[in-house]
Amino acid sequence: MHKIILSIALLISFSSITFSQVGIGTTTPDSSALLELNSVSKGFLAPRMAAVQKNAIPNPALGLIIYQTDSTSGLYVFDGSTWIAALASGNFVDLSTNQSINGTKTFNTDIFVNGIQLGLGGSSIVTNTALGFNSLNANSTGGNNTAAGYQSLLYNTTGNSISAYGVNALQANTTGSYNTAAGMNAMYSNTTGAANTAMGHYSLYSNTTGSYNNSFGKNVLSNNTTGNYNNGFGYSTLYYNTTGTFNAAYGSYSLYYNTTGSYNSGFGHYALFSNTTGTENEASGYNALALNTTGSDNTAGGYKALYSNTTGGSNTANGALALQANTTGSYNTATGMNALYSNTTGTANTAMGHYSLLSNTSGAYNTAAGMQSMYYNTTGYDNVGNGTNALYNNTTGYYNTAVGFQSLFSNTSGAYNTSIGLNNLYSNSTGDHNTAVGIDALYNNTIGTYNTAIGFAADVSSNNLSNVTAIGYGATVNASDKIVVGNSSVSYIGGQVSWSTISDVRFKKDITENVPGLAFITKLRPVTYHHDMDAIARLMKTPDSLRHKESEMPAGAMLRTGFIAQEVSQVANQLGFEFSGVAKPQNADDYYSLRYSEFVVPLVKGMQEQQVQIDELKKLVAQQEKQIQLLLKK
């Protein structure tokens, strides 16, 4: 026996030296083979050892082959760094039964070794498809699965109806079903999550049990673990989402930092980019709600709408840069490009129209409707501006209401003003408590207060009057504490009853009887006259555009009766009488006027004086009659 072994060794050595090839069972080994074994009755037997012994081999050479007898038995090849199962038990799979088998068997369905299809058999329906090293390696009863890529669906056991395409796609999936993953490491960590779709490298990478998620693009929903019902479309959308649910992100980086926030929708690049825990937000447009973190119930539509919002809630912004600077302000509504652009902490504002409330920062409870309405408002509050350029220059004014084109246009800090009509209170800056109704009403007022004008061009002739009332077309007041009804063309003012003046004794003091009668009345000069309509217009500074000359003509032609106010004032002065019937001018724009009802008092006094004279004359006449009778008797 020893001789035979020695002979074989010498033969091998000789053959090696002579031919550089060795053949056992053949005298003509293939020229490409160093050693060729040829037999029809015997096989090659690799070294057999346990896993512990295999792992104890010192410095195994690249390509070293052994047969492992315990644990996962089979042939193992050393690839230079680790032992790889080459023909391990269980890598032969009969897919008709989904059972791993050893040894030789005639299969009636597809046969796969390490994911490589070997051949087709009978007519049974194929349920699983695996292409790639270790793909579907641990599958036991899971069916209708497709795995293409290195270690795709590596640990799947019972999961059904799964499609995995790409290196490590759905690698950790065990029982999760109805998942689709395409891309390297797509849904890498998923274990039991179901009905998910991940398209793109690292898409839904960390998902474990989250279900009903859809992710399309690289890094989409990469950190999602248990969040459900999320949709991400675009590079890195919903990247940091972990447990947030019912979120929808469309556009790269939209909802990027969202972690636990739910019920959010981001449409556009960087939409809701910084949102973390904010809920029920909707952002549509590039950078819309980009800096929002915990703010909730916000709606932003347009380029950078609500861009700076962080914790503000219940805001609605529609239009490019609408509410762009808002940070913590809440309950704001902005519709139109740049509407409420500068708002930071202001709350409960409504802006409708391009550039409306553009400069508002902390002002609250304002409503602006119309392009550039309340454009410069910063901290003013409780204002209403309805109409293009309404309350345009208002900054800090409050409790103002302006309705109409350029209504209260110049107001800055005036408060408690009400303006309804085009150009009403146009020049008002700091005046307050004014009311103007009608086109151009109180147009010239700037700092006047407590004024009321009702009617087209009803106005004041001076900018600083107070407590005046102008009623009717073109009615103009030129002095404080004065009421004017109608313009110079009015020929009749009346009513069903006479005008009443307060005359209750309870409201009077320092009562004296020093009203002159006949001394005053007898010096008055009653006259007739016509109004000079041009002179009135010049004094009242009424432009030709506001004069109605057709109605002025009959008013100027009317013959009037009365007194000359200057003459009445002179008579009263001569008598030292402070006659309330004369209204003297209060300024250079004012004029003399008379209160004809006041003449009743001196007239009554004159009649009383006359009656005294009459009574005295009667007495004198009676005495004279007596004397005459006595004389006649004599």
Summarize the structure.
This protein has 634 residues and is of the alpha/beta class.
How would you describe the overall organization of this protein?
- By secondary structure, this protein is an alpha/beta fold.
- Among the domains are: 2-37, no CATH class; 48-85, no CATH class; 505-605, Arc Repressor Mutant, subunit A.
- 14% of the residues lie in helices and 18% in strands.
- The protein is built from 7 helices and 38 strands.
- The strands form 8 sheets. The protein has a 22-stranded parallel sheet, with no helix packed on it. A 4-stranded mixed sheet has the order 3-4-5-6. A two-stranded parallel sheet has the order 1-2.
- The longest helix has 34 residues, at 600-633.
- The radius of gyration is 52 Å and the shape is rod-shaped.
- The model is unreliable at 1-19 and 88-125 (pLDDT under 50).
Average pLDDT across residues? 88
Task: Provide the CATH architecture of the domain at 505-605.
Answer: Orthogonal Bundle
Structural class of the helices, strands and pairings? alpha/beta
The parts where pLDDT drops under 50 for at least 5 residues are: 1-19, 88-125
Enter the CATH topology name of the domain at 505-605: Arc Repressor Mutant, subunit A
Distance between the termini: 213 Å
Estimate the strand proportion.
15-25%
Level-1 CATH class name of the domain at 505-605: Mainly Alpha
Biggest sheet layout: 22 strands, parallel
Helix content: 10-25%
